[in-house]
Amino acid sequence: MAEVTVKQLADVVGVSVDRLLTQMQEAGINGKTETSGVSESERQSLLAFLKRSHGENAEEGEPKKITLKRKTTSTLKVAGASGKKKTVNVEVRKKRTYVKRDTLEDEQAAEQEQQVAVDAAAQAEAEARQAEETRQAEEVRLKAEQEAKAQQEQEAAAKAAEEAEAKRRAAEEEVLRKQQEAVREAAKKTEAERQRTREQRGGGSDDDRRGGKKNARGGDKRGGRSDDKGGQRRGGKISRNKNARGGAARSGGQPNAHGFTEPTAPKVMEVNIPESLTVADLAKKMNVKAAEVIKVMFKMGAMATINQVIDQDTAVLVVEEMGHTPKPMQENAVEEALMESIQQAQGEQEGRAPVVTVMGHVDHGKTSLLDYIRATRVAAGESGGITQHIGAYHVETDNGMVTFLDTPGHAAFTAMRARGAKLTDIVILVVAADDGVMPQTEEAVQHAKAAGVPLVVAVNKIDKEEADPDRVKNELAQRDVIPEEWGGDVMFVNVSAKSGQGIDELIESVLLQAEVLELTASPAAPAQGVVVESRLDKGRGPVATLLVQNGTLRKGDIVLAGLHYGRVRAMLDENGKPIEEAGPAIPVEILGLDGTPDAGDEFTMVTSEKKAREVALFRQGKYREVKLARQQASKLENLFANMQAGDVKSLNIVLKADVRGSLEALSNALEDLSTDEVKVNIVSSGVGGIAETDANLAVASSALIIGFNVRADAQAKSVVEREGIELRYYSVIYDIIDDVKQAMGGLLSPEYREEIVGIAEVRDVFKAPKIGLVAGCMVTEGTVYRNKRIRVLRDNVVIYEGELESLRRFKDAVGEVRQGMECGIGVKNYNDVKVGDQIEVFDTVEVQRTL
Question: What is the pTM of this model?
């Protein structure tokens, strides 16, 4: 920077000249005036003095850059719009920054070092990538070499086997050739001796006639072929009859005698015939080829293949046609034999861990409780918690192990129990201390009681200010869940899934309940248990999650699960890690089944694949019969017949009503109908529409569903149609009582039953001048008729019953509107139709009951 005067420096710095001269004298710069010049070194000395005077160390704290600001103000006169001059103040601001040279050098050096580091990292990454590619290429090469080597070994083994087979065939041909030569030599010697005998006697022609063709026993008379030497040829071998009169017997020669005697009568076998078997298995039981069985069936008019499964009646006819004695096996003989073999293999009983299912209302803390237990009680070595590969997991505690089923809600619990599975030992009922007993809590209690499973109540959210545990106890006591301190048998534990309060006491209560139940298992027995869930994996095929209840399951065992079977090719634990075996109360995931069994199906380890296939085929044949029998047993019309046969001791009912008053009246009236012979059992009751859980509970309990002024939703209807259970709608209490009473007494007279013929959904509501309120509807099911009675449903609850006042299609009055068409409906004497309501058209039909 060029030399400046003292006055210019004072203007730049923004101080007066006198003050600047005083500061320069204090800094040791003397002899300066207003016009004197100030060099660069003098400015640096002045700057260092000023820093020291302000307490800064020039060496340590000097700045790396200095910014100077300058502001000047000037006055400018300009002409205005009216011609007058105006004065305008103009302010000019200047800003200048001085950077120290060594700071710039340091920044440049830092940038260079950073660039060098980036280049080095990029080079290292490139080298690592190249090394990885080299390693992968080496692995591919080694794998290719191993495959080529294995293929060469297979080819060499196949070639060696072919050479051995060729040598064996050559040896057999050599032995056969020598035998044939020996036979020919013996025949030549015999013929020579016979010729000498004839020459000695002088009567060759008579002896030839007597010893050749006429006296060749075992030749023509037995259906064989006699040659000119008087022998007998059978199956490529030549033999002579001991009683042949020609030469050999009299001359003292030794004849060639065979050792096979043709059977004189067919062998009749007794054939055991199961419920179903394949054509190949039937042929094996009769010791014949499968082609002969297929031929016999073709003659009988039945086309079959070697692997086709035939029923017992067809197999009996085939066995009788082939001349054997059929012995049909009794029903369930295959499964009974399997169960007997398993029972015989039972070992010493030992204690096992309990299987626990957590149930409760939505948002009461079921998931939070499970997450806390899983996070604090995982087994040692399982870092990061347990990944939910399968629907169950087990945790280790100080007092023992507990297995938790990840089946949220009571829907899955009941769905598995509907298939006869006794999977859960204890149910933890989670109830929020601030909300109390809610509808799903009450349903969970009903489902647990129907299954006969003990309860442990966990009163959650105890750390909240509005928590009231006594209220929970009072509400549950009204539903026959009595706490122990009140003289009952249900343990109540106050917990907090958020802070962990009471979790240890809850687990101790579960283990104490397990001790009371005395849960035992035999680890040395064949594995038995229940299928928790199954799915079809795209890459691995059928994958099933099993819970071992008894015995030990090992890799390579043959498993029979429901209607499917297979060998365990791989077995994984809940962390997805391969394991070799699993004991009682341990959940595992297996691969190797030929299909996906249903949740709740029981599985068993079988010793042979043939036995597993036989039982699986038997179960597949019986599946439809069992399903139809269960459907018929739950129908109200068959109650009296089943009661006389001794099959039914109680009538199970799932009851849903529109209001609580009607529900209590119906429950009391139906329970009062119970007699000594048959009891009416209300399995579940509630207010509101019929849900899927109600249908599943009806399947599990073989119950019929009664809806009083309520309807089933789409999910419940699908379960009802699939399982074939009985579902009835009523609007009069006395009709329900009369139907149940007549069924129990066997008075099945004709009845009038309501049949839903059409349902229309309200899409819009508008007013018509002459008619009044009109509902614009879309017919979603069946056909809507004008001359039939209707009901108005809102949220699946009946709110009005009456008649149609008008039914129009566009502007025309019509008598009916079919499914998928729009229409306008006017309801007589009712003006509260809203968008979303359903208008149900029903008809009363006469139904003839039969026993």
Answer: 0.42
Q: Helix 609-633 crosses helix 333-344 at what angle (to 10 degrees)?
A: 120
514 and 369 both lie in a single domain: yes
Here the tokens at position 821 are 């068409």
| 71 and 152 housed in the same domain | no
Q: Would you say 334 and 276 are in contact if contact means Cβ atoms under 8 Å apart?
A: no
Tell whether 732 is covered by a domain: yes
> How far apart are alpha carbons 287 and 298 in whole angstroms?
19
Residues 589, 372: Cα–Cα separation, whole Å: 24
Q: Pairing relation of β-strands 455-460 and 491-494?
A: parallel
Asked if 431 and 457 count as a contact pair (C-beta separation under 8 A), the reply is yes
Residue found under tokens 């016009």: 35
Same-domain status, 570 and 586: yes
In three-state secondary structure terms, 679 is: strand
| Cβ-proximal residues to 721 (8 Å cutoff; 6+ apart), any chain | none
- Residue 150 makes CB contacts below 8 A (sequence gap 6+) with none
Average pLDDT over residues 730-753: 72
182: helix, strand or coil: helix
Cα separation values, 759 from 30, 190, 467, 533, 807, Å: 111, 104, 46, 37, 14
- 779 pLDDT band (50/70/90 cuts)? very high
Candidate from 184-198, 219-233, 336-350 with smallest mean pLDDT: 219-233
How many other β-carbons are positioned within 10 Å of the β-carbon of residue 526? 20
Q: Is residue 498 part of a domain?
A: yes
End-to-end Cα, the chain, rounded Å: 121
Contacts of 622 (CB under 8 A, 6+ apart): 275
679 versus 731: which is more confidently predicted?
731
Task: Let me know whether 210 and 289 are in one domain.
Answer: no
Asked if residue 224 lies in contact with residue 233, where contact means CB atoms within 8 angstroms, the answer is yes
Phi (first) and psi of residue 179, to 5 degrees: -60, -45
* Helix, strand, coil distribution of the chain in percent, nearest 5: 40, 30, 30
What is the DSSP pairing of strand 401-405 with strand 455-460?
A: unpaired
Pair 577, 714 in one domain: no
Determine the 3-state secondary structure of 437 from DSSP. Answer: coil
499 with 400, same domain: the answer is: yes
Pairing of strands 772-785, 751-768: antiparallel
CA dist., res. 207 & res. 800, Å (int): 120
Mean pLDDT of 373-388: 46
pLDDT score recorded for residue 762: 93
**C-beta separation of 727 from 705 below 8 A:** yes
Please, are residues 669 and 733 in contact by the beta-carbon 8 Å criterion? Answer: yes
Residue 485 per-residue DSSP state: G
Q: How confident is the model at residue 231 (pLDDT cuts 50, 70, 90)?
A: very low
Q: For residue 343, give the nearest of 354, 332, 335, 355 by alpha carbon.
A: 335
Q: If DSSP states are collapsed to H, E and C, what string results for 606-653? A: ECCHHHHHHHHHHHHHHHHHHHHHHHHHCCHHHHHHHHHHCCCCEEEE
**Domain limits for position 828:** 753-847
pLDDT grade for 220, boundaries at 50, 70 and 90: very low
Residue 845 amino acid letter: V
Q: How many CB atoms lie within 10 A of CB 595?
A: 16
Rounded-to-integer distance, Cα 797 and Cα 713, Å: 11
Distance CA 653, CA 670 (A): 9
> Is 600 found in the same domain as 574?
yes
Task: Quote the Cα angle for 697-699-705, to 5°.
Answer: 70
Closest CA to 347 of 611, 601, 586, 583: 583
